[in-house]
Design brief:
- With 233 residues, this protein is of the alpha/beta class.
- The chain has one domain: Alpha/Beta hydrolase fold, catalytic domain (Rossmann fold, 3-Layer(aba) Sandwich), CATH 3.40.50.
- 49% of the residues lie in helices and 15% in strands.
- It has eleven helices and six strands.
- The chain has a six-stranded parallel beta sheet with strand order 2-1-3-4-5-6, sandwiched between helices.
- Helix 2 packs across helix 3 and helix 4 packs antiparallel against helix 8.
């Protein structure tokens, strides 16, 4: 029986392995899961190097939000190691200007001791309106962020703000690529996802109804189905 293809998951800002809980059962029969840690590094390049050091020689790669930027950095440095690429809540490089302003304000709030108040205030901006009043989803969001911690969060925020331009090699990506975004995402907009899909030849774009930024948590079954199709065809 052939061994399963390793699939390396890279979570987003203030996220950990919990982000992917909704995908584990549906994907585990098809892939060997590896969960990267990008909480200790200062830059996107350092995060990418850490992921590559942990990863097998050849692997599929799924990056969410901040993790998508790390994934694209990996595609610019070691594309030959990546068999398949999934980008969730992703841009072609960096964050949109309103989000950059929000992140800068978040840094100031957290540095002044307002980490918990920041999490309470920011949660509704990351999910669709129906999910904003879901206490279980909110608890998952806040507990995940608290587990990562404010110091790691600050490092990740500064790393995101340091991305000043799109990745230059997007048209050179040749592996099967899927791009997944929420139709209600105001942080990484559908237009940003569409632009990214246009820049990666042959990529598949999936815009999920009823979800905003946190598609793996908001609509886990839809995301799992799309990723299973991507991973097995």
């Amino acid at each position: 029986m052939p061994s399963l293809m390793p699939l390396v998951f890279i979570s987003g800002l203030l996220c950990n392995q919990t982000l992917w809980n909704g995908q584990v059962a549906g994907l585990s029969p098809f892939v060997d899961m590896v969960f990267a840690d990008i909480t200790k590094q200062e830059s996107i390049a350092e995060m990418a190097a850490a992921v590559l050091k942990q990863a097998p020689a050849y692997f599929s790669l799924a990056g969410f939000s901040l993790g998508s930027q790390v994934a694209l950095e990996i595609m610019s440095t070691c594309p030959e190691r990546v068999e398949r690429l999934a980008l969730l809540s992703a841009t072609h490089g960096g964050v949109l200007p309103p989000v950059a302003n929000s992140i800068q304000q978040a840094i100031e709030t957290i540095e002044q001791g307002g980490f918990h108040s920041y999490l309470e205030a920011i949660y509704p901006t990351y999910v669709s309106a129906p999910h904003a009043v879901d206490p279980g989803l909110k608890r998952c969001f806040i507990e995940m962020a608290q587990a990562v911690g404010e110091e790691a969060g600050l490092r990740q925020m500064r790393a995101l703000l340091a991305i000043k331009c799109p990745f230059s090699n997007l048209d050179q990506i040749r592996c099967p690529t899927i791009i997944i975004g929420g139709r209600d995402d105001h942080r990484t907009t559908p237009a940003a996802h569409e632009m990214l899909a246009q820049e990666i030849p042959g990529s598949e774009l999936v815009l999920v109804e009823g979800a905003a930024h946190f598609t793996p948590l908001e609509t886990p079954d839809i995301v799992t189905k799309a990723m299973r199709r991507w991973a097995t065809h």
